[in-house]
Design brief:
InterPro entries: Cyt_c-like_dom, Cyt_c-like_dom_sf, Cytochrome_c-type_DH, Membr-bd_ADH_cyt_c. By secondary structure, this protein is mainly alpha-helical. The protein has 18 helices and 8 strands. Helix 9 crosses helix 11. Bound molecules: heme C (3 copies).
């Protein structure tokens, strides 16, 4: 071998080594890019699934759990789902993670309460599930936050009873539309039914607290709010909204002339919907407009079309408008004032204006052409007055103060009646008793009202069985 050929060979070896290194480095890069893409995909799934709304109690430690989820049966504490090995899901395998989400069974085999919306998540596709698992395990910082145990009253404290409930109501979902490239309407259905679990608030529940499939998205009570009918019905539902308006509402939390998002909807906007791609929000709009219409016979026109009926009292009678938009702490000092017009001018007019038409830019919205004020019951109007609205949307932050401590039930009823008559649905009357019930969290579900009787009936059945066994034994003894 000549020197030249040795040099040549060495050159080739070096070149080969260099190429291999470049290849390896780019492979590592490609792998890292693929991992990043997977984590980003998983994060998008977790956002669309709105996991943060329930699993975050303290914004500084996302997903660290501890938030009490109010259920009619008592508070259920959302788990720590950070990858903490001591307090979170750090020891969950992907199979266990999928079982918790799709079947409502945790890593110890314990049944979860359906406050965790696994009936909806049952339809999450394998691809989305895998990406979400990788996201939680690799990208969410572990937080060792111990969550208080959930203690529901007997008999709901027996978690195994959920197995019976699941046998009745847990259906394995479809995964149609799980890819962003699916047909728009399928994608919308997947986002609404599976990830967005919209029906968990918008569909009314039966005696056993399962969603009534015949009333799908037909409107329901949640924590004192009414999650309205969002079927395609043009009168009772949102058939009169365009898909673009629905998408804008989901993104920003408000649409002029239609309504604003308060309560649980404000949270869904803040934690989930405002981060979703416009194409997904549009797909939700398109799908909702295809949902079979549910009409409430007594509804005459869409809630957002109401604009009052009773003429306003002469403006001169109203107290002068305050220059700033904060509440005047003295306006309701005289607790005896239950004059709706006095209360409105003191507590509301600085923002919503004496005319009720809101400000020019509608940052303080009109109370006419406003779903909450035009609905056939005033629950959302009362809830907005009691608890205010504090919401971060894609476009801006909105804030309406809560009046629960400034106004008593009679005063809230008075101001609500003033608002309904002059700006909304004049046929709606709010009573003091109704405000008291809404303040206490809304009507008690039938299951809870029936529980004492159900327990008594169960006790009688047990006693009867014991008595029958005893009698059979006795008669056998007598015969022998
Ligand atoms: C509407 C509220 C709500 C939403 C939304 C929600 N969860 Fe939960 N989740 C809960 C509650 C409450 C529990 C505890 C239930 C119990 O104790 O029976 C829970 C339990 C869990 C558990 C079981 C952990 C354990 O070991 O205790 C996992 C895992 C979980 N959730 C993951 C998720 C993920 C991932 C998402 C989003 C895709 C999500 N959850 C969305 C309320 C929610
Ligand atoms: C935690 C409960 C909850 C969840 C989950 C929820 N909503 Fe809502 N939604 C509400 C409440 C409550 C309102 C009424 C808000 C108000 O008037 O201030 C509402 C209002 C709406 C409205 C406006 C209807 C109208 O006529 O004013 C639309 C549209 C809507 N929701 C769509 C959705 C979609 C789509 C999803 C799922 C991605 C969803 N919601 C999930 C509780 C919820
Ligand atoms: C400091 C200003 C401010 C005051 C005072 C105020 N509001 Fe509001 N109000 C707002 C803002 C901001 C919104 C939400 C706008 C949005 O979502 O885009 C709102 C929303 C509402 C809504 C719609 C709620 C829903 O869920 O759709 C109603 C109804 C309402 N206000 C009634 C009242 C009444 C009645 C009073 C007096 C008791 C009052 N507001 C006092 C600023 C105010």
């Amino acid at each position: 071998m000549t020197i030249i050929s040795i040099v040549h060979t060495r050159g080739w070896i070096l070149k080969g080594l260099m190429l291999a290194t470049v290849g390896f480095v780019s492979m590592v890069h490609a792998q890292a890019a693929a991992d990043d893409a997977l984590v980003a995909h998983g994060k998008a799934v977790a956002i669309a699934g709105d996991c943060a709304a329930c699993h975050t109690d303290n914004k500084a430690t996302p997903f660290a759990g501890g938030r009490p989820i109010g259920s009619p049966l008592g508070n259920i504490f959302a788990s720590n789902i950070t990858p903490s090995k001591t307090n979170g899901i750090g020891n969950y395998t992907e199979e266990q993670f999928a079982a918790a989400l799709r079947r409502g069974v945790d890593a110890r085999g314990r049944h979860l309460y359906p406050a965790m919306p696994y009936t909806a998540y049952a339809g999450i596709s394998d691809e989305d599930m895998h990406a979400m698992y990788v996201y939680f395990m690799q990208a969410v910082p572990p937080v060792d936050n111990a969550v208080p145990p959930t203690k529901l009253s007997f008999p709901y404290s027996m978690r195994w009873t959920m197995a019976i409930w699941n046998a009745l109501y847990l259906k394995k979902g479809t995964v149609e539309g799980s890819s962003p490239d699916s047909k728009e309407i399928d994608r919308g259905r997947y986002l609404v039914d599976t990830l967005g679990h919209c029906s968990s608030c918008h569909t009314p529940r039966n005696l056993l607290m399962a969603e009534r499939s015949g009333k799908y998205l037909g409107g329901a009570n949640v924590d004192g709010w009414i999650a309205p009918n969002i079927t395609s019905d043009p009168v009772s539902g949102i058939g009169g909204w365009s898909a673009e308006e629905i998408a804008a509402y989901l993104k920003n939390g408000h649409v002029n002339g239609k309504g604003q998002a308060g309560g649980g909807m404000a949270e869904a906007v803040e934690q989930s919907l405002r981060y979703m791609p416009d194409s997904d929000l549009h797909a939700i709009g398109v799908y909702l407009k295809s949902v079979p219409a549910i009409r409430v016979a007594s509804d005459e026109k869409p809630a957002y079309e109401y604009a009052g009926g009773t003429p306003l009292p002469s403006i001169t009678k109203l107290e002068p408008q305050r220059p700033d938009v904060t509440r005047d702490p003295n306006f309701a000092k005289d607790a005896s004032s239950t004059d709706g017009s006095v209360l409105y001018s003191g507590a509301c007019a600085s923002c919503h204006q004496p005319s009720g038409k809101g400000t020019g830019d509608q940052y303080f919205p009109s109370l006419s052409h406003n779903r909450a004020v035009g609905m056939s019951t005033s629950d959302n109007l009362v809830m907005a007055i009691l608890h205010g609205i504090d919401r971060e949307g894609a476009d801006m932050h909105v804030l309406m103060p809560a009046f629960d401590r400034d106004l008593n039930d009679a005063q809230i009823a008075a101001v609500a009646n003033y608002v309904s008559q002059h700006f909304g649905n004049p046929g709606v009357v709010t009573t003091t008793a109704q405000v008291a019930q809404i303040r206490a969290g809304g009507p008690t579900p039938l299951l809870l009202r029936l529980t004492p009787y159900l327990l008594a009936a169960a006790a009688i059945v047990v006693l009867l069985i014991v008595w029958l066994i005893f009698r059979r034994k006795k008669s056998r003894r007598v015969r022998s």
